[in-house]
């Protein structure tokens, strides 16, 4: 048996309140009285504030988000913005990730794992309060974790028929029929987050199957959602911080304290507007900067930027039928294309070349296995492989969407493939249409997309035989089974190295490289957790 | 008059019915997957299929239409499948308010700019005033609203800091904040309609000013200002009212770009987001409401004709 203890971190602050836009009334009235005759009204905005001896802080943090989630039920919705808003701040997990992408306890006080990782006992922290005022007990954890497993295909595949059980009020356990060494990592971080809510909330679902009430244990509680406008979180006064307040941050782990009273996540779809709002101080942070605006933010003395690998840009072959099912053809494509050009047209300078399927935010799993087949860019060799594949002038059909410059990527790819002697057509559609079209194996040979970071390699959805692209390779399946049943992380890593090596030979997908997710923020913003996104549970904004 | 209004209202029903069939058919014939949009990019195909089944989106389209229209007749527009499961009627109510305020504000700016300037241009035809107004009108018609909006944003929000960059503040947040949050979007939207109205007002005024009864009034020695404001302007109002009505319809349904640029959570952004998410219930309801508004505004315009010009009798 081994045991994992919680890590901690430290912050000190007082809070204060401020409203935006309280000056310039006279200018406004002067300008518009003459034009519209309605500007004679005035109102005052106010903000009370507190200060400490050295610095005063605003009570409200305003974030400009570039997306809006369909739901904040993180257990079932995979939209990244939902995680940025609620994961860690509203909802917490049994375990979370530290900066080395290792799982460490969060709502669990400690975890006892069997020697072969085939069972886990979670000892829960006592006195943890939900936002509805009730105390977190084992029944809530079991209901939440089992709801998460039942609603998340990757988790179901991993655990099989095993489910969480109550041991006593503050202890839960799960036992598997085989070792499951990556289980804690999956709980700590996945696209469908293993959040803990109340047992009653778990049974109160809307017609989509999403949670109706967002009741977590985090330092902020959900207050209001005005669709297409703003999601507001407010400080949860009964939150009991845990861990060492003097320790520094460690990934998502450690001491939490809500320093602001309110966090507003405004939905601002236009990038120019987000950046303008950042420049004026209306927003303290803006998500989704592109290479077009990154420099202007970075060169502003009042602003700062944060960028990290956010996932991978991927070419997914249709391996069920057509040209994509021919491995030699896939190798010809991979040999002839220029990875740098393809990434550049998509992301400007916001990418990093690298053969690893995993991003460097999951450093443990990073390997360059198979790199000999990465970015070869040898057209002569590609043409030879094409001839070997039996290619006879058939049309190679590329499917893409018009978001995130995928249409431009498709055009450059088309030109490169034409130069290799391949007849190519490109179909560009909107995202919703794209997600529909890619389920039809008769409609395309290759589609272009990106995949966000995952905590363990086996969570890559394109390895699945039912996921569009239909990777159905006996050897790969065997590797993934070995990975899932490994008894130690070292053993799992060794299997993963072999798996990636194999994938670069057989090319179920082509991993072009890593895209960079970038954010701009005011230098007055302190304490944000910049790890696999930007998070604000410890954030505050100086006056 | 009363009989006329009742007839017009009854005639709306088949219009809306046809609109509902067209919208429903177009939407459901358009490829796209609601469940994928809801669950996100990383969702597995099993989860996507399960949600489509749960939402009834795997049923035959006829059955889906009958289910939907039956609920609409009972006053139930359903719930949004892609936006936090909110009731569609509530979403429309919430999003309609900023749009009607923005459209009203934009129209007010348009009217207050366009009518005096259009009259002046007609009065001083061929002079610097006329050329100046025509140039402004040409600029307004040619300049895309997003470009004007960006320019206004950079000058008045970023440089001068007189207005917020984006966002909508309701009345309850304070009248100053409310008006400030809508001013730049309203100017961006209203300038285009103002330009159009200016041209129409000028042309209409010129036509009236050249008519015989105006010449007669001049011959009788009626003051120039009275001729322009009382006789010429009132008689040119029929055309102007038509343009104002059309502008209001355009502003209500066509503020998508401006709403997106300035982050105003109105009907435009609602329908754009709903289309992207294939949120059928919302799109269908919004289009129905817009069709109803269109018909209603046209009816109001027709009724105004009779008030402005008593010679017109509606039957």
What does this structure look like?
The complex is a heterodimer of chains A (543) and B (315). Chain A is of the alpha+beta class. Chain A has two domains: 2-266 and 524-541, D-Maltodextrin-Binding Protein, domain 2, CATH 3.40.190; 309-517, Dipeptide-binding Protein, Domain 3 (Dipeptide-binding Protein, domain 3, Roll). In chain A, 27% of the residues lie in helices and 22% in strands. Chain A has 15 helices and 23 strands. Chain A has helices spanning 25-36, 80-86, 138-150, 153-159, 183-188, 199-203, 271-280, 291-298, 327-336, 339-347, 379-389, 406-419, 431-437, 474-484, 489-506; strands at residues 2-5, 57-58, 60-65, 95-97, 103-105, 108-113, 119-124, 165-168, 171-175, 220-226, 230-235, 262-267, 285-287, 303-317, 351-352, 395-401, 423-429, 446-452, 509-522, 525-526, 529-530, 534-535, 540-542. In chain A, a hairpin with a 3-residue loop joins strand 21 (529-530) and strand 22 (534-535). The longest helix of chain A has 18 residues, at 489-506. Residues 1-50 of chain A have low confidence and may be disordered. With 315 residues, chain B is an all-alpha fold. Chain B is globular and about 85 Å long.
Q: What form of chain B results from the Cα inertia axes?
A: globular
User: Which oligomeric form is depicted?
Assistant: heterodimer
What is the CATH C-level name of the largest domain in chain A? Alpha Beta
The rough form of chain A would be described as globular
| Helix percentage of chain B | over 70%
Supply the CATH superfamily name of the largest domain in chain A.
Periplasmic binding protein-like II
Number of helices of chain B: 13
Structural class of chain B: mainly alpha
How many domain modules of chain A? 2
Structural class, judged by helices and strands of chain A? alpha+beta
Distance between termini of chain A? 50 Å
Low-confidence runs of at least 5 consecutive residues of chain A: 1-50
Overall pLDDT metric of chain B: 86
**Helicity range of the residues of chain A?**
25-40%
């Amino acid at each position: 048996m081994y045991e994992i203890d919680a890590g901690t971190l430290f912050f000190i602050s007082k809070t204060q309140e401020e409203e935006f836009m309280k000056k310039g009334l006279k200018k406004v009235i002067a300008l518009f009285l003459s034009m519209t005759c309605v500007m004679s009204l005035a109102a005052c905005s106010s903000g009370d504030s507190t200060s400490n001896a050295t610095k005063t802080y605003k009570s409200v943090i305003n974030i400009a988000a570039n997306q809006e989630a369909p739901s904040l039920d993180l257990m079932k919705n995979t939209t990244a913005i939902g995680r940025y808003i609620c994961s860690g701040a509203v909802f917490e997990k049994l375990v979370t990730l530290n900066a080395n992408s290792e799982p460490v306890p969060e709502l669990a006080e400690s975890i006892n794992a069997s020697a072969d990782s085939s069972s886990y006992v979670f000892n829960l922290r006592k006195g943890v309060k939900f936002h509805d005022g009730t105390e977190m007990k084992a029944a809530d954890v079991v209901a939440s974790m089992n709801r998460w497993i039942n609603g998340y295909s990757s988790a179901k595949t991993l655990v099989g028929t095993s489910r969480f059980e109550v041991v006593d009020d503050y202890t839960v356990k799960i036992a598997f029929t085989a070792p499951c060494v990556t289980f804690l990592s999956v709980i700590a971080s996945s696209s469908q987050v293993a959040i803990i809510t109340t047992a009653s909330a778990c049974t109160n679902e809307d017609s989509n199957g999403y949670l109706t009430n967002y009741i977590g244990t985090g330092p902020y509680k959900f207050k209001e959602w005005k669709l297409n406008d703003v999601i507001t979180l407010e400080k949860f006064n009964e939150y009991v911080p845990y861990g060492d307040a003097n320790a520094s941050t460690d990934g998502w782990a450690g001491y939490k304290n809500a320093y602001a009273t309110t966090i507003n996540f405004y939905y601002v779809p236009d990038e120019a507007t987000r950046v303008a709002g950042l420049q004026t101080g209306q927003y303290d942070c803006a998500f989704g900067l592109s290479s077009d605006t990154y420099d202007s933010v970075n060169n502003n003395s009042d602003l700062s930027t944060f960028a990290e690998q956010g996932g991978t840009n991927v070419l997914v072959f249709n391996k069920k039928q057509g040209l994509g099912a021919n491995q030699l053809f896939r190798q010809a494509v991979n040999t002839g294309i220029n990875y740098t050009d393809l990434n550049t047209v998509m992301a400007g300078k916001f990418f990093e070349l690298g053969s690893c399927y995993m991003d460097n935010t999951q450093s443990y799993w990073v390997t360059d296995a198979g790199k000999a087949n990465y970015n070869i860019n040898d057209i002569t060799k590609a043409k030879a492989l094409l001839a070997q594949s039996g290619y006879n002038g058939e049309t190679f059909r590329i499917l893409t969407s018009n978001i995130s410059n995928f249409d431009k990527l498709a055009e450059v790819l088309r030109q490169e493939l034409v130069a290799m002697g391949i007849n190519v057509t490109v179909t560009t559609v909107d995202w919703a249409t794209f997600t529909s079209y890619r389920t039809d194996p008769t409609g395309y040979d290759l589609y272009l997309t990106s995949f966000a970071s995952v905590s363990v390699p086996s969570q890559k959805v394109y390895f699945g035989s039912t996921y569009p692209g239909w990777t159905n390779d006996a050897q790969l399946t065997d590797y993934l089974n070995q990975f899932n049943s490994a008894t130690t992380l070292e053993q799992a890593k060794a299997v993963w190295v072999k798996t990636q090596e194999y994938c670069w030979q057989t090319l179920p997908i082509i991993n072009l490289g890593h895209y960079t997710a970038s954010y701009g923020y005011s230098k007055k913003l302190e304490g944000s957790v910049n790890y696999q996104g930007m998070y604000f549970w410890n954030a505050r904004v100086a006056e | 008059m009363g009989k006329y209004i009742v007839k017009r209202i009854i005639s709306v029903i088949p219009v809306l019915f046809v609109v509902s069939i067209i919208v429903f058919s177009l939407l459901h014939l358009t490829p796209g997957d609601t469940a994928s949009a809801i669950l996100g990019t990383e969702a597995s195909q099993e989860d996507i299929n399960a949600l489509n089944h749960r939402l009834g989106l795997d049923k035959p389209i006829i059955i889906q239409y009958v289910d939907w229209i039956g609920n609409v007749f009972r006053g139930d527009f359903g719930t949004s499948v892609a936006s936090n499961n909110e009731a569609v009627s509530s979403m429309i109510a919430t999003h309609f308010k900023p749009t009607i305020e923005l459209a009203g504000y934009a129209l007010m700016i348009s009217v207050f700019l366009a009518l005096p300037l259009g009259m002046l241009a007609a009065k001083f035809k061929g002079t610097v005033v006329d050329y100046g107004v025509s140039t402004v009108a040409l600029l307004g018609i040619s300049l895309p609203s997003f470009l004007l909006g960006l320019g206004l944003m950079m000058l008045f929000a970023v440089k001068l800091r007189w207005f917020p960059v984006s966002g909508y503040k309701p009345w309850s947040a304070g009248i100053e904040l409310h008006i400030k949050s809508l001013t730049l979007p309203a100017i961006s939207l209203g300038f285009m309609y103002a330009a159009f109205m200016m041209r129409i007002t000028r042309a209409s005024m010129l036509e009236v000013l050249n008519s015989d009864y105006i010449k007669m009034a001049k011959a009788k020695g009626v003051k120039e200002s009275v001729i322009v404001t009382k006789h010429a302007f009132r008689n040119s109002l029929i055309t102007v009212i038509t343009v104002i009505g059309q502008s209001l319809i355009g502003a209500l349904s066509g503020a998508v770009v401006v709403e997106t640029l300035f982050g105003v959570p109105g009907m435009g952004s609602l329908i754009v987001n709903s289309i992207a998410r294939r949120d059928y219930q919302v799109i269908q309801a919004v289009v129905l409401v817009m069709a109803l508004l269109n018909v209603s505004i046209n009816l109001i315009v027709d009724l105004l004709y009779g008030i402005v010009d008593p010679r017109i009798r509606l039957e």
